[in-house]
């Protein structure tokens, strides 16, 4: 574990920042029901970062450094929690503030919530949207977690009042996205997960327990002032929002958490494909795939021999979920979400501090996925595994494809070097085609000399990498190379 003695790690200034505000266009669901756009009609790619403890665990200087860094790196959404997981109600924040007086949500500390507003405004200054979780799930679905259990089925008005208070505080902030949940199931009733059922039973939670009325009351309070895009961050596993919240009219976007406990190459592409095929359709995305530098499946105890998830593990999950039909994806780093430092301490075997972690490979490479998707017509994209004539049952080798509905381009994520695949290109117009190897480590596309004419093409990835994206374009489309220069132009 490396905890650097960074100057920022000791900053404790409480002087308010002075900066000009910036209004960003609101986000909304595109007419296709699968993707997001701004209210101006511009495509919006969700490239999120889990900064769960940002509000509670950073000083002003640290927060500014974090936001500026992620904005410069090309992120679009920051996911942060108002009532933080790590004892965020009873333990003062890095600025010495508690959210409530005597743990009473009906007696909010305006200074604490003024700081929330400052962070949202500063994020807007950097062009960032904030997916704001009003509370981590343990303040509602305890007993697992620090709690305390503030919101309950017998005090729904309290959840509504808290939501309304937040909405009024953040009135007019067009870069706010609401995200409920906080790594907890919305209900145990009719849940198909044996893991969740057994966990609930171990805490004497009734198998018919349903917390959705509390979330609905909170959502209603949040939207009293003005409507905003609303999501739910579920616990890991297949019981995601499209299962447990299928009838929630406040839910704008479905979310999954493929997480960190099921090993490498968890098939998040299957969960995304399931959500994509639902009727009526909603956008969907993986709100928490495996974090970079997170210990491999550390529950109930970590075996150090299994190591950590590194950049290659992360890239595979990011690309395959987006190519399966997601409207974007959330990256996460194990030291960043908790803001691991000498002051904040370390949770669950983090191997470095958050400042070093901001420069880790996958965190810097994630924007190359965004740039690739934005380099081609955005709303025309749809997942299509029928273009693959060769398949594998090994998750580690799983190939994922997406293409334009009009056949103008095809993108194929291939996870291994020297991996042969056979393609069915009959969905593309016949004639001349151009093809590129897009490097997800550098964001550079290199022209392939091999011919891609005809309906069937066999191709093998380069012998190094390990992972690649094959880009095939209809030559008449006029698309340039899917690289940095093409995106910046």
From TrEMBL:
Domain Apiosidase-like catalytic, chain residue ranges per copy: 32-379
SUPFAM superfamilies registered for this protein in UniProt: (Trans)glycosidases (SSF51445)
Origin: domain of life: Bacteria
InterPro entries xref list: Apiosidase-like_cat_dom, Collagen-bd_put, GH
Domain spans labelled Putative collagen-binding: 383-473
UniProt-recorded name of the protein: DUF4038 domain-containing protein
Native species: Tunturiibacter lichenicola
């Amino acid at each position: 574990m490396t905890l650097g003695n960074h100057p920022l790690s000791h900053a404790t200034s409480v002087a308010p920042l002075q900066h000009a505000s910036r209004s960003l266009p609101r986000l909304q669901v595109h007419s296709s029901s699968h993707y997001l756009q701004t209210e101006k009609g511009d495509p919006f790619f969700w490239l999120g970062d889990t900064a769960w403890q940002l509000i509670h665990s950073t000083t002003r200087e640290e927060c500014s450094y974090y936001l500026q860094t992620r904005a410069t790196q090309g992120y679009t959404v920051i996911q942060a929690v108002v009532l933080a997981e790590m004892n965020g109600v009873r333990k003062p924040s890095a600025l010495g503030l508690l959210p409530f007086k005597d743990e009473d949500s009906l007696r909010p500390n305006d200074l604490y919530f003024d700081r929330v507003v400052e962070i949202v405004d500063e994020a807007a200054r950097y062009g960032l949207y904030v997916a704001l979780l009003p509370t981590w799930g343990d303040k509602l679905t305890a007993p697992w977690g620090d709690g305390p259990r503030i919101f309950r089925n017998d005090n729904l008005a309290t959840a509504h009042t808290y939501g309304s208070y937040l909405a009024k505080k953040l009135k007019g902030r067009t870069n706010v996205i609401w995200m409920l949940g906080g790594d907890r199931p919305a209900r145990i009733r009719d849940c198909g997960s044996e893991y969740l059922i057994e966990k609930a039973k171990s805490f004497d939670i009734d198998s018919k327990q349903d917390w959705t009325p509390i979330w609905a009351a909170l959502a209603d309070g949040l939207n009293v002032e003005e409507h905003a895009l609303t999501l739910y961050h579920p616990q890991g596993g297949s019981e995601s929002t499209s299962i447990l919240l299928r009838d929630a009219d406040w839910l704008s976007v479905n979310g999954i958490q493929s997480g960190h406990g099921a090993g490498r190459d968890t098939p998040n592409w299957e969960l995304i494909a399931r959500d994509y095929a639902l009727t009526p359709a909603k956008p969907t995305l993986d709100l928490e795939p495996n974090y970079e530098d997170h210990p491999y499946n550390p529950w109930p105890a970590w075996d150090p021999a299994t190591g950590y998830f590194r950049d290659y593990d992360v890239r595979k999950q990011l690309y395959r979920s987006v190519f399966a039909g997601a409207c974007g994806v959330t990256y996460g780093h194990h030291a960043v979400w908790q803001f691991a430092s000498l002051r904040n301490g370390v949770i669950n075997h983090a191997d470095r501090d958050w400042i070093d972690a901001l420069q880790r490979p996958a965190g810097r490479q994630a924007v190359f996925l965004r740039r690739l998707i934005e380099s081609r017509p955005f709303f025309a994209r749809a997942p299509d595994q029928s273009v693959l004539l060769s398949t594998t049952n090994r998750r580690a080798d799983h190939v994922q494809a997406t293409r334009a509905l009009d056949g103008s381009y095809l993108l194929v994520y291939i996870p291994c070097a020297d991996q042969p695949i056979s393609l069915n290109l009959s969905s593309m117009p016949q004639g001349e085609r151009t093809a590129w190897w897009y490097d997800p480590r550098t964001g550079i596309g290199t022209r392939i000399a091999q011919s891609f004419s005809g309906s069937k093409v066999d191709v093998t990835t380069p012998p190094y990498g390990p992972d690649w994206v094959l880009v095939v374009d209809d030559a008449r489309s006029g698309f340039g190379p899917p690289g940095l220069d093409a995106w910046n132009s």
